[in-house]
């Protein structure tokens, strides 16, 4: 059995091949924690999401089943930004 795990740059940007027998994403996190101490706690941060074979997981992540050949990616959430003081330029309307 082999499952590939891709970490984002903010977690080291590494790719791991997990050969330990794991059945769920929760078990995979435990194995990764043994391989790279501290990474399990980071993955539990709400800033990170999990994708398996390009499918973003939103609910019951720990119980999501895994199989041989899966690709698991840890994806940081992207949001926010800075509000502009001036609104962006838009169309100009004139009255007739």
* Neighbour order of strands in the largest sheet: 2-1-5-3-4
CATH homologous superfamily heading: Beta-grasp domain
What structural category arises from helix and sheet content? Answer: alpha+beta
Give the C-alpha Rg: 20 Å
Count the DSSP helices: 2
Structural commentary:
The chain is an alpha+beta fold and 96 residues long. It has one domain (3-76): Roll (Ubiquitin-like (UB roll)). It has two helices and five strands. A five-stranded mixed beta sheet has the order 2-1-5-3-4, covered by helices on one side. The longest helix has 11 residues, at 25-35. The N and C termini lie far apart (72 Å). 12% of the residues are buried. The model has no long low-confidence stretch (mean pLDDT 85).
Question: How would you summarize the topology of this molecule?
Answer:
Layout: E1 3-6, E2 15-18, H1 25-35, H2 39-43, E3 48-52, E4 55-57, E5 71-76
Parallel strand pairs: 1-5
Antiparallel strand pairs: 1-2, 3-4, 3-5
Please describe the structure with a list of short key phrases separated by commas or semicolons.
96 residues; alpha+beta; elongated
Compact overview of the structure:
The chain has about 100 residues and is α+β, with helices and mostly antiparallel strands. The protein has helices at about 25-35, 40-45; strands at about 5, 15-20, 50, 55, 70-75.
